[in-house]
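Pasting as-is:
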Amino acid sequence: MPPFSTKADFIEHFKRCYARYLARHSCPRPSLPLPELISHMTIICQQNEVVRVSICHCNIQKLHLRALFDCLNDDQGTSIREIILNYCDLSDTMSSFIASECMRNDNIQSIELFGNHISSDSMTAWSLYVQSTSSLVRLKLGDNKITSQGIHILATALGSNSSITQLHLGGNLIGDQGVFDLCAVIPWKNQTITSLALRDNSISHTGCSPLAQLLKNPKCRITDIQLKGNQIGSAGAQLLAPSLAVNHSLKVLELHNADIGPKGASACCQFMMSNDTIHAINFNQNNIGDIGAESVANLIRMGRISTLGLSENSITYKGASALAQAFNYSNLTGIDLGGNDKVGNAGAAQIAKALKENHTITSVDLRNCGIGTKGCIQLASMLHMNARLQHLDLGSNMCKNDGAISLAKALAKNTALKRLCLTDNLIHNKGGIALAEGLKSNVTLVNLAYGGQGDKQNKVSTPIRNIIDSIVKENKLLAKSSPFNTSGHSQPALTTTDSSASLSLDQWKYDVLQNSHNHNRLLDVEDVLSRYKQARRAGGCPNWIQSAAPSTFSDDELNSKIIYLFKADLLPRKNPNYKDYVYLTDLKAVLSLHFPETTNHVSYVQLLQILFRRQQFYVHLPQNAGPSKVEHGAQVKFLQDARTSRKSTRKSHSPVKTTPQKSSRKSPSMASPHHTTPSSVTTMTDATEYSNVSSSSLFSTPELHTRGSLPSSTSSEMSFGRELHTPSPPTVLSLSFSSPSVQTQKTEKGPSSGMASKRAPKLLSELGDTTQHIYNLFSPAGGTKSMQEAFRRELKK
């Protein structure tokens, strides 16, 4: 039969095998349901054949394994070459079962069993499989519980194997004795293994002696040896160092977090001067200091090292300067100096100076290096000239707004940088606006990180983030269709600039910017931010209120009823601290009393919907307000006369001028300075324009598609808004709507109060009980103050 061609074919066959085992053996169903197991399954296909099966991070059972290997050992499973069962809680029994089933399959080339509970007890089964197989190339048993006894059994089998090239045993418990057992076989009996991973295995300097003998052996074929996390110390590094001078196979030296110190680093560098094969060194977290950094600088001058890891090594600006001076005499392509918090501005300036003339380095990591604004400005000036650097990490420094502005100017001209990290740099809106403006002219940056957490996190407003993210997203799409690489060169490493290629890239960049479909490249960013702030002040309605189902009453009808209750002074004021406010519970109770038809048809949330949509009301919600407890503590204030609004206007220094009327009665006001609602308003904006607009439409208005200043308009003409909370005093959350544009006219004087009091009974008989007529009476054109007060007294009687 032909092999599995699709993921669906394999899963269907797996289900049939699973059902067959359940029926044949009358087995109880496993605790892990089959659909959940399949959700953890990853199937990789190449050229219409399934080549890899991966199941990770689940509690797999033996019944699942039987069904899986039935598929693998079937005629249709001949194309499957890789099995991955990481973090599946495999026991020794299941591990032995896997080894025995693999012996029946001659096609498997890679087995990966990281993070299980495999111990030395199952190594006998694995040794039998290793001895018999001729197809297995990669055996990965990392992060288990294998001890030196299990390694002794496995090493004996490795002496008879001639196919395995990669052996990963990191994260076990093999110790120094396990290293002795492995080195007794490699390379004396096994000369095929090229990659040996021994990280985090409790190896001390004692275990470095057999490793040194292994590397000195002319038959050694090891190209990659990983000793990360083994505290071999300075003594162990000095034992390994002489073997590095005579070895001609090793390409990667991994000594991350090995406690080698400055002496161990210096010894290794001294002997590697004679080595012509090692091109990558990882000395991260070894506390090598400036002394070790200077030794590394001398080594990279030899021109053989391409990748260098020196993070968290207590390197200061002196060590950074020594390294920088060696950049232009090396073939270095990437360097990691992150976590050396004393590099500072001085070290950053030296690195920037060296990178201005460098044509090989493509990646520099300077995160958490104590770099301030001055150092960031120096690095930005480097980006104006460097046409090779593609990755720059400046996270967790102190670039601030001025540093971001300098980087933004550089981004507008740079055509090489692909990834830039600015997280945790105390960048606020000023720096964010500059970055957005700079990115308008950039077509190559495809990854920009500028968030963060903690005390130094950046705080850039949502509209600015939207502009930045959309431009970067467009750049990603452009990178896929670009006929050039983003550095502007066709060769991977050039020491001179190809002017014709640069000219073509500039032309392509010009064409892209002219034909850009991204509207945000054309926005005036500062104007967008100011308009966003206006919309935020007006659009404070919480999402859980906006998304609630509306009442059966129309907004106008319910609004007129509420205004009537306020103007007729029928609502109790029970809060001694806020005498002008009415509790939402009291408002609903009185509304149901005077308008019984609303009793079962208007909820608290629906009532808040109306209040938020009308500019005549202020709504104060408690900080913990929500759909289930909105009635507890919510308060409403009605702006009922012009003097209250004029008092707020004077406090906010509004340019709108009104002539205050003298009155002996004091009108208490708790109005926000953003609200002005005089009684003589002739044009009023309905705040619902702000409330029900999704955030995705923030930059979708036609007015925003042209560069430069936007057309002058009131906030009511903006078709965008935000569903945000606007904080007020510590105990409450102040949320309200207002009309941004107000026109006033001269208020006409009405009849005297005495005449009004005589007309009140007649008005009552003429108007009847209709709410609309009562509302008309209390409208600005419906009567004077004296008439309204007389009418209120009659109602109380």
